[in-house]
Amino acid sequence: MDNRIEWARNHDELVHAVESLGLPGELGDQVARQLGSPKAMQRMMAYLYNVKPRSAELIVDETLAICSDIDRWKDKKAAEEANARYNEILYYGLGDDDSD
Question: Tens of pLDDT along 66-85?
Answer without folding.
Answer: 999 999 999 999 999 999 99
